[in-house]
Structure formats: C-alpha cells, structure tokens
Sequence to fold (324 residues):
Amino acid sequence: MDAAKLQSIHIPDAQRKRSAGFFWFIVLFVVAATGIALYFARPWADDTRESKPALPGAVGQNSKAVENPAPPKRADAKPGDAVLTVSGHIINRERIEVSPRVMNQVVWIGVKKGDHVKKGQVVVQLDDSEQKARIAEIDGQLAVARVAIERAKVTYARVLKLRATQNDTQEHEDEARLAVASAEAQLHQLEGTRATAQVWLDWTVIKSPIDGVVLEKLADPGELVSPQSFGGSRGPSTALVSLGDPNDLQVEIDVSEGDLTKVSMGQRCRVSPEAYPDKIYGGVVAEIAPEANRQKGTLQIKVQIEKPDNFLTPELSAKVEFLK
Fold:
C-alpha cells in the first residue's frame, strides 16, 4: 500500500529537468531587467559635456545656475575709491519764509503744502481795503492840486500883462510866479504820497520770489500776520508760507576732527539716499563751516547734490562717500 502511494506521487526525471530550467530562466530575466533599469537610472556624474550657463529665469536640462549669484558691481562704485563715508541729512540750500511787510489780515491763501510755484506767482492776498481807501483820498487831493496850479498860472499870466503896461508892480509878479511853483510842488508831493500808498497796496499781494515748492503753510485766512515777533506765544504770525527749490539740494553732515584731513573744498562725492540705496548722485563739497562744534568734536560740511530728482526729499538721511 505504501509503495503504491509513493509511486503515485513520484515525478519523472524529465519533468524535474524542465522545471529547474524554467526557474533559472526567470532568475536571469529578473537580473537582466534590474541591471538595465539601474544603468538608465544612475545620474550622469561622469558626463564631461560643457554646460552652458542658463539665462536668468530659463528652465531646462542645462539650468545649473548658481541660486544666488553675486550682484554686478556698479560702474560708479569702484572699490577703494572712497576715503571717507559719512551719513547726513538732505536739506534745501535755501529755505525762504515769505513774510508780510506790514501787519495785516490774511484774506486768501492760494497754495498748500507740497504745491509747486513759479517765480512771481501770487500765493497770498492780504486785506487791501485800507490801502485802496488811502489811494482814493490822495487821488482827490491830486485833483485839487492840479486845479490850484491852473489858477496860479492864470493869475501869473494876468500879472505879466499888467507888468508889460507898467500897471502892476514887480512884487506882484514875483508873488504870482512863486504861487505857480508852490502849486506844482504841492502836486509833486501828493504824487509821491500816492506812490507810497501804491507800494503799500502792492504789499498786500504776496508773490513767490523763486521757482520752488511750498514746504509749509504757516498762516490761514482770517489770521492776523506781522513782519516781526512781539515775543509772546499769542502774537501774530510772522510768516505766511515757507518755500524751497527742489533742484537746489545739499547734504548736511558732521565730520569728526580725526577725518577732516580727508575732506577739502570742491572734493568730488557720491550721494545715495538711505531710502533708495540703489540711487547714486554726484556731489561736490560746497561749504565747510568756519567754526567747529566743541561739544560734539565735529565740523559741519555741506555737499551740493548734482542733478537731484524726485527721489531726494529734504530732511531724509543720505550717505556721502568722499572720493580720492
């Protein structure tokens, strides 16, 4: 019985050889497929082909550019050409505060802070009623003076006729002649008075003395303004508007005593505002203070900015590089 069972499960030698051969065929196929996959998957580390530098923003197989390339050097920022670097503040070379000539009341202000104005442009109108009334009064006096001249001339002509016939005296002739001269002098005096009144009337119209920008409005309509201060905080305002030329800017800096040998009049400089460090402007040392600050141990230097533009704002900080 046992021999019959063993005989039933016995595998012939031919079938065993076919099974073993099929097994080794599968093993070789797997090894070959694995080798091919590894060959194509490995990185091309030994690739000696020259990779062209990728253009900024380009994407491709040769885009092996440096992630953070160094920025190009500015042509105007040559290394080692600056002997001193100091920070200061941008200022208007001239700041003009427009004041009235006489105490008066503001009627109208036609500008506001930041407005551009032209030279001769009307910016403020003061009350002119008193000045106009004064001129009207003087015009009446001038009319009376002209009539007085005509009367004096008629009287003088009559006296001359009488003198020609010996019917009047030399004394009357002299008096008539002097009366004409007196009337004419009175007319000239009134004309001068009227010219003065006209000047006072012209002073009520405030015009800009320069082409510039309104830096500050210092008075309002209805406010009393004066050409001088009376020492009290509640006194009249002494200025109407403050003006500056945006095309005439300087950088005001304080240089320490130890660095004064590196600065000279007319020296070339580079100016860059702290708010826009990529903006570079030419400059030149325009002013060196004649007196130092004892407490700070510094000397004030002013550098004139060449060709300023809208990026330069007064009172902002700026860096100044003094060149060799």
Observations:
- Confidence is low (pLDDT under 50) at residues 43-75.
- The radius of gyration is 49 Å.
- The chain is about 35% helix and 25% strand.
